[in-house]
């Protein structure tokens, strides 16, 4: 999922959905520049979206302090 404000000056980290909890391609990767979520069918679900929005809300709340 891609998210940014209207003029593109504030971009959020990408949300990547995949089937595997630990993909082989990420084997030796310490950190990713994206958020990764594993879902059985690799589809966006309401629970994944809600979790993403809650994390975004927490990020904005700490930035405002």
TrEMBL record:
Residues 1-62 form the DDE-1 domain. It comes from the Eukaryota. Coiled coil: none annotated. GO terms for cellular component: nucleus. GO terms for molecular function: DNA binding. Signal peptide: none annotated. InterPro entries: CenT-Element_Derived, DDE_SF_endonuclease_dom. This is DDE-1 domain-containing protein. It comes from Dreissena polymorpha (Zebra mussel). The lineage of its organism: Eukaryota, Metazoa, Spiralia, Lophotrochozoa, Mollusca.
């Amino acid at each position: 999922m891609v998210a940014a404000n209207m003029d593109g000056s504030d971009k959020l980290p990408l949300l990547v959905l995949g089937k595997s909890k630990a993909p082989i391609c990420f084997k030796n990767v310490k950190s990713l520049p994206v958020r990764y979520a594993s879902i059985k069918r690799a589809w966006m679900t309401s629970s994944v979206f809600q979790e993403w929005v809650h994390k975004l809300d927490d990020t904005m709340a700490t930035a405002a302090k």
